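User: My instructor asked us to take a sequence, write out its structure as C-alpha coordinates, and then describe one feature of it. I'm not sure where to start. Here is the sequence I was given:
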Amino acid sequence: MAYLIGVDLGTSGTKTVLFDEKGTVIASHTIEYPMYQPENGYAEQNPEDWREAAFDTIRAVMQKSGVSRDDVKAIGLSGQMHGLVMLDQNCQVIRRSIIWCDQRTAKECAEMTEKIGAERIIKITANPAMTGFTASKILWVRNHEPRNYEKCRHILLPKDYVRFCLTGEFATEVSDASGMQLLDIPKRQWSDEVLEKLEIDASLLAKVYESPEVTGTLTREAAERTGLNQNTIVVGGAGDNAAAAVGTGVVRDGKAFTTIGTSGVVFAHTSGITIDPKGRVHTFCCAVPGCWHVMGVTQGAGLSLKWFRDNFCNAEKETASQMGVDPYYLMDKAALESPIGANRLLYLPYLMGERTPHLDPDARGVFFGLSAMHTKRDLLRAVMEGVTYSLRDCMEVLKEMGVSVNDMMACGGGGSSPVWRQMLADLYTCPVKTVDSKEGPALGAAILAAVGAGLYSGVPEACDAIIHTANTQEPIAGHIPEYEKYYQLYRNIYPAVKEQFKALAAL
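Assistant: Let's start with the prediction itself. The C-alpha coordinates for your sequence are:
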Protein backbone atom coordinates (compact mmCIF):
# COMPACT_ATOMS: atom_id res chain seq x y z
CA MET A 1 0.00 0.00 0.00
CA ALA A 2 1.25 3.48 -0.91
CA TYR A 3 0.74 6.42 1.48
CA LEU A 4 0.55 10.17 0.92
CA ILE A 5 0.84 13.21 3.17
CA GLY A 6 -1.27 16.35 2.87
CA VAL A 7 -0.06 19.41 4.79
CA ASP A 8 -2.64 22.19 5.19
CA LEU A 9 -1.10 25.42 6.48
CA GLY A 10 -4.09 27.32 7.84
CA THR A 11 -4.49 30.64 9.62
CA SER A 12 -5.14 29.15 13.05
CA GLY A 13 -2.87 26.14 12.69
CA THR A 14 -1.24 23.57 10.44
CA LYS A 15 -3.02 20.26 9.98
CA THR A 16 -1.12 17.33 8.50
CA VAL A 17 -2.90 14.16 7.47
CA LEU A 18 -1.46 10.81 6.37
CA PHE A 19 -3.68 9.02 3.82
CA ASP A 20 -3.47 5.73 2.02
CA GLU A 21 -3.75 5.76 -1.76
CA LYS A 22 -7.55 5.34 -1.54
CA GLY A 23 -7.91 8.52 0.52
CA THR A 24 -8.49 6.81 3.87
CA VAL A 25 -7.19 8.80 6.84
CA ILE A 26 -4.45 6.91 8.67
CA ALA A 27 -3.31 9.62 11.10
CA SER A 28 -3.81 13.34 11.64
CA HIS A 29 -2.15 15.99 13.78
CA THR A 30 -2.67 19.75 14.19
CA ILE A 31 -0.49 22.41 15.77
CA GLU A 32 -1.86 25.92 16.37
CA TYR A 33 -0.01 29.24 16.35
CA PRO A 34 -0.91 32.89 16.95
CA MET A 35 -1.91 35.72 14.65
CA TYR A 36 -0.68 39.22 15.51
CA GLN A 37 -2.70 42.40 14.97
CA PRO A 38 -0.40 45.28 15.93
CA GLU A 39 -2.87 47.84 14.55
CA ASN A 40 -6.51 47.86 13.46
CA GLY A 41 -6.74 46.12 10.09
CA TYR A 42 -3.28 44.52 10.37
CA ALA A 43 -2.73 40.75 10.42
CA GLU A 44 0.65 39.03 10.66
CA GLN A 45 2.15 35.63 11.49
CA ASN A 46 5.64 34.25 12.02
CA PRO A 47 6.78 32.02 9.12
CA GLU A 48 8.99 30.10 11.56
CA ASP A 49 5.80 28.99 13.32
CA TRP A 50 4.60 27.48 10.04
CA ARG A 51 7.91 25.71 9.47
CA GLU A 52 8.03 24.16 12.92
CA ALA A 53 4.35 23.17 12.75
CA ALA A 54 4.90 21.44 9.40
CA PHE A 55 7.96 19.51 10.57
CA ASP A 56 6.36 18.51 13.86
CA THR A 57 2.97 17.50 12.44
CA ILE A 58 4.57 15.33 9.74
CA ARG A 59 6.70 13.59 12.36
CA ALA A 60 3.63 13.18 14.60
CA VAL A 61 1.51 11.45 11.94
CA MET A 62 4.37 9.12 11.09
CA GLN A 63 4.81 8.20 14.75
CA LYS A 64 1.07 7.77 15.33
CA SER A 65 0.57 5.60 12.26
CA GLY A 66 3.50 3.22 12.42
CA VAL A 67 3.65 3.40 8.61
CA SER A 68 7.09 2.74 7.16
CA ARG A 69 8.81 5.78 5.72
CA ASP A 70 9.53 3.68 2.62
CA ASP A 71 5.81 3.52 1.85
CA VAL A 72 5.22 7.31 1.90
CA LYS A 73 5.44 8.26 -1.76
CA ALA A 74 4.81 12.01 -1.80
CA ILE A 75 3.84 15.16 0.09
CA GLY A 76 1.30 17.73 -1.09
CA LEU A 77 1.10 21.23 0.34
CA SER A 78 -1.93 23.43 0.79
CA GLY A 79 -2.08 26.75 2.55
CA GLN A 80 -3.53 30.15 3.24
CA MET A 81 -3.03 32.33 0.18
CA HIS A 82 -1.58 35.81 -0.39
CA GLY A 83 0.79 35.96 2.62
CA LEU A 84 4.11 37.73 2.01
CA VAL A 85 7.26 35.90 3.14
CA MET A 86 10.52 37.79 2.56
CA LEU A 87 13.92 36.10 2.86
CA ASP A 88 17.37 37.73 2.88
CA GLN A 89 20.53 36.55 1.10
CA ASN A 90 21.02 33.90 3.79
CA CYS A 91 17.44 32.68 3.30
CA GLN A 92 16.46 33.98 6.73
CA VAL A 93 13.03 35.50 7.34
CA ILE A 94 13.27 39.31 7.32
CA ARG A 95 9.97 40.22 9.00
CA ARG A 96 6.70 38.65 10.08
CA SER A 97 4.48 37.65 7.18
CA ILE A 98 1.68 40.04 6.26
CA ILE A 99 -1.15 37.54 5.72
CA TRP A 100 -4.30 37.28 3.62
CA CYS A 101 -6.74 39.21 5.82
CA ASP A 102 -4.46 42.23 6.35
CA GLN A 103 -6.06 45.44 5.07
CA ARG A 104 -3.27 48.02 5.36
CA THR A 105 -2.45 48.39 1.65
CA ALA A 106 -5.23 50.61 0.24
CA LYS A 107 -2.74 53.29 -0.89
CA GLU A 108 -0.53 50.68 -2.53
CA CYS A 109 -3.54 49.33 -4.42
CA ALA A 110 -4.18 52.84 -5.73
CA GLU A 111 -0.51 52.99 -6.72
CA MET A 112 -0.83 49.70 -8.62
CA THR A 113 -3.97 50.88 -10.41
CA GLU A 114 -2.27 54.12 -11.42
CA LYS A 115 0.87 52.40 -12.74
CA ILE A 116 -0.83 49.53 -14.59
CA GLY A 117 -4.31 50.86 -15.32
CA ALA A 118 -7.59 49.64 -13.86
CA GLU A 119 -8.75 47.71 -16.94
CA ARG A 120 -5.30 46.40 -17.77
CA ILE A 121 -4.65 44.94 -14.33
CA ILE A 122 -7.95 43.02 -14.49
CA LYS A 123 -7.16 41.78 -17.99
CA ILE A 124 -3.74 40.42 -16.95
CA THR A 125 -4.27 39.30 -13.35
CA ALA A 126 -8.06 38.73 -13.62
CA ASN A 127 -8.63 40.90 -10.54
CA PRO A 128 -8.51 44.57 -9.57
CA ALA A 129 -5.75 45.70 -7.21
CA MET A 130 -6.64 44.06 -3.89
CA THR A 131 -5.61 44.89 -0.33
CA GLY A 132 -5.47 41.22 0.60
CA PHE A 133 -3.23 40.16 -2.29
CA THR A 134 0.54 39.88 -2.21
CA ALA A 135 1.69 42.52 -4.71
CA SER A 136 0.31 45.43 -2.70
CA LYS A 137 2.02 44.04 0.41
CA ILE A 138 5.35 44.02 -1.42
CA LEU A 139 4.83 47.68 -2.31
CA TRP A 140 3.82 48.47 1.29
CA VAL A 141 7.09 47.07 2.61
CA ARG A 142 9.01 49.01 -0.04
CA ASN A 143 7.17 52.22 0.88
CA HIS A 144 7.22 51.86 4.67
CA GLU A 145 10.16 49.57 5.47
CA PRO A 146 12.75 50.31 2.77
CA ARG A 147 15.58 48.63 4.71
CA ASN A 148 13.65 45.37 4.86
CA TYR A 149 12.87 45.63 1.15
CA GLU A 150 16.53 46.22 0.31
CA LYS A 151 17.47 43.05 2.21
CA CYS A 152 14.94 40.92 0.31
CA ARG A 153 16.28 38.31 -2.11
CA HIS A 154 13.35 35.88 -2.21
CA ILE A 155 9.56 36.34 -2.03
CA LEU A 156 7.46 33.30 -1.17
CA LEU A 157 3.89 32.45 -0.24
CA PRO A 158 3.21 30.72 3.11
CA LYS A 159 3.02 27.13 1.87
CA ASP A 160 5.93 27.76 -0.49
CA TYR A 161 8.10 28.88 2.42
CA VAL A 162 7.32 25.52 4.03
CA ARG A 163 8.24 23.89 0.71
CA PHE A 164 11.59 25.70 0.79
CA CYS A 165 12.19 24.44 4.34
CA LEU A 166 11.37 20.89 3.20
CA THR A 167 13.21 20.82 -0.12
CA GLY A 168 15.52 23.82 -0.38
CA GLU A 169 13.71 24.76 -3.61
CA PHE A 170 12.18 28.14 -4.44
CA ALA A 171 8.98 27.02 -6.13
CA THR A 172 5.31 27.90 -6.29
CA GLU A 173 2.38 26.70 -8.39
CA VAL A 174 -0.27 28.35 -10.50
CA SER A 175 -3.24 28.37 -8.09
CA ASP A 176 -1.43 30.09 -5.21
CA ALA A 177 0.65 32.31 -7.51
CA SER A 178 -2.64 33.55 -9.01
CA GLY A 179 -3.36 35.34 -5.73
CA MET A 180 -0.13 37.34 -5.78
CA GLN A 181 -1.44 39.64 -8.55
CA LEU A 182 1.85 39.23 -10.39
CA LEU A 183 0.78 36.28 -12.57
CA ASP A 184 -0.62 36.51 -16.07
CA ILE A 185 -3.70 34.37 -15.36
CA PRO A 186 -4.59 33.46 -18.98
CA LYS A 187 -0.96 32.53 -19.75
CA ARG A 188 -0.24 30.87 -16.35
CA GLN A 189 3.17 32.59 -15.98
CA TRP A 190 4.65 35.66 -14.29
CA SER A 191 3.65 38.88 -16.04
CA ASP A 192 6.66 40.79 -17.32
CA GLU A 193 4.44 43.83 -17.84
CA VAL A 194 3.15 43.93 -14.26
CA LEU A 195 6.60 43.32 -12.78
CA GLU A 196 8.14 46.04 -14.95
CA LYS A 197 5.47 48.63 -14.16
CA LEU A 198 5.64 47.89 -10.42
CA GLU A 199 9.47 47.78 -10.56
CA ILE A 200 9.65 44.35 -8.90
CA ASP A 201 12.64 42.23 -9.85
CA ALA A 202 11.51 38.93 -11.36
CA SER A 203 14.49 37.19 -9.74
CA LEU A 204 12.78 37.61 -6.36
CA LEU A 205 10.00 35.23 -7.42
CA ALA A 206 9.91 31.45 -7.38
CA LYS A 207 9.59 29.12 -10.38
CA VAL A 208 5.95 28.42 -11.28
CA TYR A 209 4.70 24.81 -11.62
CA GLU A 210 1.35 23.16 -12.25
CA SER A 211 -0.19 21.80 -9.05
CA PRO A 212 0.51 18.05 -9.51
CA GLU A 213 4.07 18.57 -10.75
CA VAL A 214 7.06 17.46 -8.66
CA THR A 215 8.92 20.48 -7.28
CA GLY A 216 11.68 18.70 -5.32
CA THR A 217 12.57 16.10 -2.72
CA LEU A 218 13.31 16.40 0.99
CA THR A 219 16.64 17.73 2.17
CA ARG A 220 18.64 15.61 4.60
CA GLU A 221 17.70 17.92 7.48
CA ALA A 222 14.00 17.87 6.57
CA ALA A 223 14.05 14.07 6.30
CA GLU A 224 15.58 13.82 9.77
CA ARG A 225 13.10 16.29 11.25
CA THR A 226 10.04 14.64 9.72
CA GLY A 227 10.98 10.98 9.92
CA LEU A 228 10.69 10.50 6.15
CA ASN A 229 13.08 9.37 3.45
CA GLN A 230 15.23 11.96 1.72
CA ASN A 231 13.91 10.90 -1.69
CA THR A 232 10.27 11.67 -0.75
CA ILE A 233 8.87 13.96 -3.44
CA VAL A 234 7.00 17.22 -2.80
CA VAL A 235 4.51 18.30 -5.47
CA GLY A 236 3.32 21.81 -6.28
CA GLY A 237 0.16 21.51 -4.21
CA ALA A 238 -2.38 24.33 -4.20
CA GLY A 239 -3.75 27.33 -2.38
CA ASP A 240 -6.23 26.36 0.28
CA ASN A 241 -9.35 26.83 -1.83
CA ALA A 242 -7.94 25.19 -4.94
CA ALA A 243 -6.87 22.25 -2.76
CA ALA A 244 -10.31 22.13 -1.14
CA ALA A 245 -11.81 21.89 -4.65
CA VAL A 246 -9.74 18.80 -5.34
CA GLY A 247 -10.59 17.41 -1.91
CA THR A 248 -14.32 17.72 -2.65
CA GLY A 249 -14.15 16.58 -6.27
CA VAL A 250 -14.86 20.00 -7.77
CA VAL A 251 -12.66 19.40 -10.81
CA ARG A 252 -15.12 19.55 -13.72
CA ASP A 253 -17.50 22.15 -15.18
CA GLY A 254 -20.80 22.57 -13.32
CA LYS A 255 -19.26 21.64 -9.99
CA ALA A 256 -18.81 24.14 -7.13
CA PHE A 257 -18.27 24.25 -3.40
CA THR A 258 -18.91 26.59 -0.51
CA THR A 259 -16.39 26.79 2.29
CA ILE A 260 -17.18 28.28 5.66
CA GLY A 261 -13.77 28.50 7.28
CA THR A 262 -12.24 31.64 8.78
CA SER A 263 -13.20 33.25 5.50
CA GLY A 264 -16.06 32.15 3.26
CA VAL A 265 -15.68 31.01 -0.33
CA VAL A 266 -17.94 30.13 -3.22
CA PHE A 267 -15.77 28.35 -5.78
CA ALA A 268 -16.77 27.14 -9.26
CA HIS A 269 -14.60 25.12 -11.67
CA THR A 270 -14.37 26.19 -15.31
CA SER A 271 -12.42 24.73 -18.19
CA GLY A 272 -12.41 28.13 -19.92
CA ILE A 273 -11.27 31.41 -18.46
CA THR A 274 -14.04 33.80 -17.36
CA ILE A 275 -13.16 37.20 -15.85
CA ASP A 276 -15.56 39.60 -14.12
CA PRO A 277 -14.80 43.05 -15.60
CA LYS A 278 -16.02 44.62 -12.35
CA GLY A 279 -13.52 42.59 -10.34
CA ARG A 280 -16.02 41.42 -7.74
CA VAL A 281 -14.90 37.79 -7.83
CA HIS A 282 -11.50 36.26 -8.39
CA THR A 283 -10.51 34.22 -11.41
CA PHE A 284 -7.47 32.04 -10.70
CA CYS A 285 -5.66 29.15 -12.31
CA CYS A 286 -6.93 26.02 -10.58
CA ALA A 287 -5.15 22.85 -9.50
CA VAL A 288 -6.28 20.95 -12.61
CA PRO A 289 -3.68 21.72 -15.30
CA GLY A 290 -5.08 23.94 -18.05
CA CYS A 291 -8.22 24.92 -16.10
CA TRP A 292 -9.36 27.86 -14.00
CA HIS A 293 -11.81 28.64 -11.23
CA VAL A 294 -14.01 31.58 -10.32
CA MET A 295 -14.13 32.36 -6.64
CA GLY A 296 -16.13 34.76 -4.51
CA VAL A 297 -14.60 35.42 -1.10
CA THR A 298 -16.09 36.85 2.08
CA GLN A 299 -13.64 37.87 4.77
CA GLY A 300 -15.51 37.14 8.00
CA ALA A 301 -17.48 33.89 7.63
CA GLY A 302 -16.46 31.35 10.27
CA LEU A 303 -14.50 34.19 11.85
CA SER A 304 -17.82 35.84 12.72
CA LEU A 305 -19.13 32.78 14.54
CA LYS A 306 -15.80 32.22 16.30
CA TRP A 307 -15.78 35.86 17.40
CA PHE A 308 -19.31 35.43 18.76
CA ARG A 309 -18.40 32.18 20.50
CA ASP A 310 -15.30 33.59 22.15
CA ASN A 311 -16.98 36.76 23.40
CA PHE A 312 -20.54 35.69 24.23
CA CYS A 313 -20.72 31.90 24.59
CA ASN A 314 -18.71 31.04 27.71
CA ALA A 315 -21.71 29.18 29.15
CA GLU A 316 -21.98 27.06 26.01
CA LYS A 317 -18.26 26.34 26.09
CA GLU A 318 -18.43 25.22 29.72
CA THR A 319 -21.50 23.04 29.12
CA ALA A 320 -19.95 21.54 25.99
CA SER A 321 -16.83 20.66 27.95
CA GLN A 322 -18.90 18.84 30.57
CA MET A 323 -20.89 17.01 27.86
CA GLY A 324 -17.83 16.13 25.80
CA VAL A 325 -19.15 17.86 22.68
CA ASP A 326 -18.05 20.79 20.53
CA PRO A 327 -19.43 24.21 21.60
CA TYR A 328 -20.62 24.75 18.03
CA TYR A 329 -22.97 21.77 18.45
CA LEU A 330 -24.77 23.61 21.25
CA MET A 331 -24.66 26.86 19.31
CA ASP A 332 -26.41 25.10 16.40
CA LYS A 333 -29.15 23.97 18.79
CA ALA A 334 -29.55 27.50 20.15
CA ALA A 335 -29.77 29.01 16.66
CA LEU A 336 -32.69 26.69 15.84
CA GLU A 337 -34.63 28.20 18.75
CA SER A 338 -34.78 31.49 16.82
CA PRO A 339 -36.94 31.71 13.67
CA ILE A 340 -35.82 32.53 10.14
CA GLY A 341 -34.90 36.21 10.17
CA ALA A 342 -33.84 35.99 13.85
CA ASN A 343 -36.87 37.98 14.93
CA ARG A 344 -36.11 40.73 12.40
CA LEU A 345 -32.40 40.99 13.21
CA LEU A 346 -29.77 41.15 10.48
CA TYR A 347 -25.99 40.89 10.66
CA LEU A 348 -23.35 42.14 8.22
CA PRO A 349 -20.24 39.92 8.61
CA TYR A 350 -17.63 42.52 7.67
CA LEU A 351 -15.31 42.13 10.66
CA MET A 352 -12.20 42.29 8.46
CA GLY A 353 -13.50 44.45 5.60
CA GLU A 354 -15.04 42.68 2.61
CA ARG A 355 -14.05 41.35 -0.79
CA THR A 356 -17.04 39.98 -2.74
CA PRO A 357 -18.97 41.87 -3.88
CA HIS A 358 -18.01 45.19 -2.26
CA LEU A 359 -14.20 45.33 -2.39
CA ASP A 360 -14.21 47.57 0.68
CA PRO A 361 -11.46 47.31 3.34
CA ASP A 362 -13.31 49.87 5.46
CA ALA A 363 -16.52 47.82 5.81
CA ARG A 364 -17.21 46.61 9.35
CA GLY A 365 -19.64 44.32 11.12
CA VAL A 366 -23.17 45.48 11.86
CA PHE A 367 -26.15 44.17 13.82
CA PHE A 368 -29.17 45.82 12.18
CA GLY A 369 -32.53 45.93 13.92
CA LEU A 370 -31.31 45.14 17.44
CA SER A 371 -33.96 45.66 20.11
CA ALA A 372 -34.60 44.85 23.75
CA MET A 373 -36.60 41.76 22.76
CA HIS A 374 -33.60 40.03 21.22
CA THR A 375 -31.79 37.26 23.05
CA LYS A 376 -28.40 35.65 22.54
CA ARG A 377 -29.92 32.95 20.36
CA ASP A 378 -31.31 35.63 18.01
CA LEU A 379 -27.89 37.23 17.68
CA LEU A 380 -26.37 33.80 17.10
CA ARG A 381 -28.83 32.96 14.34
CA ALA A 382 -28.40 36.41 12.81
CA VAL A 383 -24.64 35.83 12.60
CA MET A 384 -25.12 32.49 10.81
CA GLU A 385 -27.73 33.94 8.46
CA GLY A 386 -25.63 37.04 7.74
CA VAL A 387 -22.69 34.87 6.70
CA THR A 388 -25.02 32.85 4.45
CA TYR A 389 -26.37 36.03 2.86
CA SER A 390 -22.79 37.11 2.10
CA LEU A 391 -22.18 33.76 0.38
CA ARG A 392 -25.41 34.21 -1.62
CA ASP A 393 -23.95 37.53 -2.77
CA CYS A 394 -21.06 35.54 -4.27
CA MET A 395 -23.44 33.18 -6.05
CA GLU A 396 -25.33 36.10 -7.58
CA VAL A 397 -22.13 37.40 -9.19
CA LEU A 398 -21.31 33.94 -10.62
CA LYS A 399 -24.78 33.74 -12.15
CA GLU A 400 -24.32 37.18 -13.68
CA MET A 401 -21.07 35.96 -15.29
CA GLY A 402 -22.83 32.97 -16.84
CA VAL A 403 -21.06 30.42 -14.64
CA SER A 404 -23.45 27.49 -14.29
CA VAL A 405 -23.55 25.51 -11.04
CA ASN A 406 -25.60 22.32 -10.70
CA ASP A 407 -23.56 20.45 -8.08
CA MET A 408 -22.74 22.25 -4.79
CA MET A 409 -20.53 20.83 -2.07
CA ALA A 410 -20.06 22.28 1.44
CA CYS A 411 -16.78 22.09 3.33
CA GLY A 412 -14.79 23.83 6.04
CA GLY A 413 -15.70 23.89 9.71
CA GLY A 414 -19.01 25.63 9.05
CA GLY A 415 -19.84 23.14 6.32
CA SER A 416 -20.04 20.41 8.95
CA SER A 417 -23.02 22.19 10.54
CA PRO A 418 -26.35 20.81 9.25
CA VAL A 419 -27.99 24.09 10.32
CA TRP A 420 -25.63 26.14 8.18
CA ARG A 421 -25.92 23.70 5.26
CA GLN A 422 -29.70 24.02 5.37
CA MET A 423 -29.41 27.80 5.26
CA LEU A 424 -27.16 27.46 2.20
CA ALA A 425 -29.56 25.06 0.46
CA ASP A 426 -32.51 27.35 1.14
CA LEU A 427 -30.73 30.48 -0.06
CA TYR A 428 -29.04 28.84 -3.08
CA THR A 429 -32.31 26.95 -3.86
CA CYS A 430 -30.30 23.84 -4.72
CA PRO A 431 -29.13 20.72 -2.86
CA VAL A 432 -25.96 21.13 -0.80
CA LYS A 433 -23.82 18.02 -0.37
CA THR A 434 -20.90 16.94 1.77
CA VAL A 435 -18.25 14.37 1.02
CA ASP A 436 -17.42 11.45 3.27
CA SER A 437 -13.96 12.89 3.99
CA LYS A 438 -13.76 15.97 6.22
CA GLU A 439 -10.15 16.72 5.34
CA GLY A 440 -10.77 19.15 2.46
CA PRO A 441 -7.52 20.95 1.57
CA ALA A 442 -5.30 18.28 3.18
CA LEU A 443 -6.99 15.56 1.11
CA GLY A 444 -6.77 17.73 -2.01
CA ALA A 445 -3.05 18.23 -1.43
CA ALA A 446 -2.60 14.48 -0.96
CA ILE A 447 -4.55 13.74 -4.17
CA LEU A 448 -2.24 16.11 -6.06
CA ALA A 449 0.69 14.26 -4.45
CA ALA A 450 -0.76 10.95 -5.64
CA VAL A 451 -0.95 12.25 -9.22
CA GLY A 452 2.61 13.57 -8.97
CA ALA A 453 3.78 10.19 -7.72
CA GLY A 454 2.15 8.48 -10.69
CA LEU A 455 -0.54 6.63 -8.73
CA TYR A 456 -3.28 8.20 -10.89
CA SER A 457 -3.23 9.48 -14.46
CA GLY A 458 -4.74 12.87 -13.66
CA VAL A 459 -6.58 14.94 -11.06
CA PRO A 460 -10.18 14.21 -12.23
CA GLU A 461 -9.41 10.48 -12.41
CA ALA A 462 -7.95 10.54 -8.89
CA CYS A 463 -11.03 12.34 -7.57
CA ASP A 464 -13.35 9.83 -9.23
CA ALA A 465 -11.58 7.05 -7.34
CA ILE A 466 -11.27 8.79 -3.96
CA ILE A 467 -14.15 11.28 -3.44
CA HIS A 468 -17.61 10.02 -2.34
CA THR A 469 -20.77 11.93 -1.37
CA ALA A 470 -21.93 11.60 2.25
CA ASN A 471 -24.92 13.84 3.07
CA THR A 472 -27.30 15.94 0.98
CA GLN A 473 -29.31 18.89 2.31
CA GLU A 474 -32.33 19.61 0.09
CA PRO A 475 -33.86 23.12 0.08
CA ILE A 476 -37.11 23.42 2.04
CA ALA A 477 -39.75 25.06 -0.15
CA GLY A 478 -41.39 26.99 2.68
CA HIS A 479 -38.09 28.51 3.78
CA ILE A 480 -37.13 29.98 0.41
CA PRO A 481 -39.53 32.99 0.30
CA GLU A 482 -38.90 33.75 3.98
CA TYR A 483 -35.15 33.95 3.48
CA GLU A 484 -35.56 35.87 0.24
CA LYS A 485 -37.27 38.86 1.84
CA TYR A 486 -34.57 39.13 4.52
CA TYR A 487 -31.82 38.68 1.94
CA GLN A 488 -33.16 41.54 -0.16
CA LEU A 489 -33.19 43.79 2.92
CA TYR A 490 -29.65 42.63 3.78
CA ARG A 491 -28.48 43.67 0.30
CA ASN A 492 -29.76 47.21 0.87
CA ILE A 493 -27.95 47.83 4.16
CA TYR A 494 -24.36 48.07 2.88
CA PRO A 495 -25.09 50.78 0.26
CA ALA A 496 -26.90 52.78 2.96
CA VAL A 497 -23.89 52.81 5.33
CA LYS A 498 -20.96 52.64 2.89
CA GLU A 499 -19.99 56.30 3.33
CA GLN A 500 -20.29 56.01 7.11
CA PHE A 501 -17.78 53.13 7.04
CA LYS A 502 -15.32 55.43 5.28
CA ALA A 503 -15.96 58.20 7.78
CA LEU A 504 -15.41 55.81 10.67
CA ALA A 505 -12.13 54.60 9.19
CA ALA A 506 -10.94 58.20 8.85
CA LEU A 507 -11.48 59.07 12.54
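For the description part of your assignment, you could build on this observation: Residues 171 and 252 are 26 Å apart (CA to CA). Try explaining in your own words what that tells you about the chain.
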